[in-house]
Specification:
The complex is a heterodimer of chains A (about 500) and B (about 500).
Chain A: H1 10-27, H2 35-58, E1 62-64, E2 69-71, H3 73-99, H4 110-126, H5 131-149, H6 156-187, H7 192-201, H8 206-224, H9 232-239, H10 242-249, H11 251-267, H12 272-295, H13 300-320, H14 334-359, H15 375-378, H16 380-394, H17 400-414, H18 418-444, H19 457-475, H20 478-493
Antiparallel strand pairs in A: 1-2
Helix pairs in contact in A: 1-2, 1-4, 2-3, 2-4, 3-4, 3-10, 3-11, 3-14, 3-20, 4-5, 4-11, 5-6, 6-8, 6-9, 7-11, 8-11, 8-12, 9-10, 9-13, 10-14, 11-14, 12-13, 12-18, 13-14, 13-17, 13-18, 14-16, 14-17, 14-19, 14-20, 16-18, 16-19, 17-18, 17-19
Chain B: H1 8-26, H2 32-55, E1 65-73, E2 78-84, H3 89-105, H4 114-133, H5 137-146, H6 148-158, H7 163-191, H8 198-202, H9 208-225, H10 234-241, H11 244-269, H12 271-276, H13 278-297, H14 302-321, H15 326-357, H16 368-371, H17 373-387, H18 393-408, H19 410-435, H20 442-445, H21 452-470, H22 473-491
Antiparallel strand pairs in B: 1-2
Helix pairs in contact in B: 1-2, 1-4, 2-3, 2-4, 3-4, 3-11, 3-15, 4-5, 4-6, 4-11, 5-7, 6-7, 7-9, 7-10, 9-11, 10-14, 11-14, 11-15, 11-22, 13-14, 13-19, 14-15, 14-18, 14-19, 15-17, 15-18, 15-21, 15-22, 17-19, 17-21, 18-19, 18-21
The chains are: A mainly alpha (about 500), B mainly alpha (about 500).
Amino acid sequence: MNNLNLISVLPEIFLAIAICAILLIDLFLSDAKRYITYVLSTVALLGSAALSLCDFNAGATVYGFGNMVVSDPMSSLLKVCSCIAVALTLIYSRQYLEEREMVNGRLGGEFYILSLFTVLGQMVMISANNFLIVYLGLEMMSLALYALVAFRRENTVAIEAAMKYFVLGALASGFLLYGISMLYGATGSLDMTEVARVISTGAVNKPVLIFGLVFVVSGLAFKLGAVPFHMWVPDVYQGAPTAVTLMLGGAPKLAAFAITVRLLVETLPALVIDWQQMLTILAVLSMAIGNIAAIAQTNIKRMLAYSTISQIGFILLGLLSGVVAGADGSTTNGYGAAMFYVITYVLTTLGMFGVIMLLSRAGFEADNIDDFKGLNQRSPWFALVTLMLMFSLAGVPPVVGFYAKLSVLQAVLSTGQVWLAIVAVMFSLIGAFYYLRVVKVMYFDEPVDNSKIVASKDVTIALSINGAALLVLGLVPGPLMTACAAAIVKTLAS
Amino acid sequence: MMQSTFPLLSLAIWLPVAFGIFVIAFGRDDNPNVVRTVSLLGAIVSFLATLPLVSRFDNAAHGMQFVEKFKWIDIFNINYSLGVDGLSMWFVVLTAFITIFVVIAAWEVIEKRVAQYMGAFLILSGLMIGVFCALDGLLFYVFFESTLIPMFIIIGVWGGANRVYASIKFFLYTFFGSLLMLVALLYLYFKSGHSFDILAWHTLPLPMDAQILIFLAFLMAFAVKVPMWPVHTWLPDAHVEAPTGGSVVLAAIMLKLGAYGFLRFSLPITPDASHYLSGFMITLSLIAVIYIGLVALVQTDMKKLVAYSSIAHMGFVTLGFFMFNDMAVQGGIVQMISHGFVSGAMFLCIGVLYDRMHTRNIADYGGVVNKMPKFAAFFILFSMANAGLPATSGFVGEFMVILGAVKFNFWIGMLAATALILGAAYSLWLAKRVIFGEVTNHHVAELTDINKREFLMLGVLAIAVLAMGLYPAPFTDAMQTSVTDLLKHVSISKLN
């Protein structure tokens, strides 16, 4: 019990120290030298990613802090993705933030510090093995995000979004905490491994357990943004500064996925019948509402918010068709499919908001679909990248989004739920329409705004790599799929 | 199976794609002639690369030839597996061949974003060849679906006035069909014990209700693509709005992807369902042949007329496939190849007129022969071929299908034969109204005859049409063994 085993949380420790150091260094930097904070933050994230990657190669499951945290292949892979995702977010946002004076003046480099704290929170969530640690990580991430959404305090829309996000987020945390307290009441433990063991003995009060489960699932659905707990998503996506939208629409999905697996699959496998039914309802509703509501949007950030809701539906499909018992690394691995889906989804989201920020200038937010008009004539290369992103979201091969949908669909079919698969593909068809509309606007329409697109080197390179990654992962999706499936299998086997 | 020593099929697929990417990446719009030349070079080299397929093809061999197989996505047991047999070999060559004309047809006509236009067609060409070569269900799907992206862009960017509507309709229609096919592919994957191997699926026993559902799922995908009545409505829109090259590729090759799907998937994987539903399929095909033929007759837009005639001709193809005899199935395939030449040529002809007059309305023409005698000769030839005149390629396929149909059931044969009359009616009436008569207006009076470039492309296609009409043996010989094997396979029930 009193084994600290610091190695298992090395990436987190590294990042925490780096955050403190950057916070101090930033105090002594003038606005002209703020780029040092930016560089240090990016380096810290990449360093943390590298440390996580080292753990990954060991491939074993290690517990630390008296079973409070766990380091296993799933956590390592997700932590790597999380760090890289936020690093990319920082790269894409730099120019946007500078033009809006969000990283200079009185605020200093706080944006970067808060961003790093969201990552730290995510990493804690990802490696949590105790209900309280889940909650700790969740709040560390969320509080930093609330502050980030409200970062432009003179902007009323952003403040409104921050209020909504904060109130609903706090409510969701409350739900989760209440559910956890029920589970604690039923099992007498906060340790996930212990809870799972107690439940498997059968000597628990089932109604209390189910009651707790309903609240846990509601809390998770809030955080993921699944229907009917999605109300905050469109408003917050639209209202928050685009850089922050990406900060909360990208990497946090990875962490939310991780705690979903930890809480439902690892802790409550005995209740699988119950939560699979709940997830089915959430998944179908999310795909329906998300895809249909997205058609009507004219604001691209709002459209992407509804698109996110529908994509979450797909991720839930993967989660509900996992096979808990006898997960043997065979191809019927719904959790691996969902993990592959969430990683590729985050990659696509990054690129998409990257493009939106690229098109934005001082005093101008390119957040209407019409702002993409004639992008192909203004910049064929970025138009092509956006085309890839859109077809990836729509699930058209050879871009990676298709393989994500494919692996989820095959997981769904492997459990014999043909109707669910058909519902899913039909909603993808509806979804294709609004993604196509963006392509249409970029390629078929004449530009209204002929101003030159100024892209700094780092953004150009990062966006190009992002776009190319979608295609490369589409042509060779095997390694990442295998990595996801293997990580899940090893994690669940331990 | 004959293992290939040199990856000829991969070369045929990826060479045009590589050229396409190169053209898009390095093509500059301020120097379009370089782009055009490189694209033409790419198209010709890609075509030459497919010729060894013809010369080394073994007509007598059973099964697949030029086979390539590598692991692709291990976790799902998906392979990069390619191969052609008599059913598909000529389509690889045809695709590469038609692409050359697409490039030539666009030479002076496409002026905006030339590099993207040429690049899109070259990439599209490679992807379509991939569809014909794929022996892995998922690989097939990936190629089948990827073709939508360049075509969507081509119609939408370089198309006519109503291009946005047409391109989105095209995309959503075909995407809808394909998604159901994806579910069927995944179902087969589980039924066959985690395999996407199409040839393994051929021998997979399946109960009747599963066969019918799979057949219908494939039907949705292929019927939309062919297109069969009543899911054909995207085609006239797409054709009318697409630039000339887009129409040519759509009619000459893209429609064949669907018909080919029937041969590679529907018939051999679900033989019992194919027999069970053959009446349904024959009815749909006959409606396409007769009803759509009548619809073609009343069109006032030349492109629409040829688009409807394409649907009618493809009705012949699907009719042939569900007669279950050698003659009709071979006829169907020959008709596909022939239609590739003829419809391609018809759309090129319309493109030639459109470039000069900027109208596709039949009523705006008349007496073109007085001003464009060389062009008129080609136009009449291709119209005749479209009507199925003996000695043109159009005759061979239709005649074989009708013979096969008579063998199957006299009345079906007779109904199909009426299509020849309808075909002659709309083709010749079109020719009469456009080409012959007095010069009707001053726009026609100002027409100039075709230039060397246009003469070259129409001339080569004319030779192809006549050669195939006079001596179809190279085509029929190549497919003989495969068709016989297919029919033998289809005649054996998979129920047990």
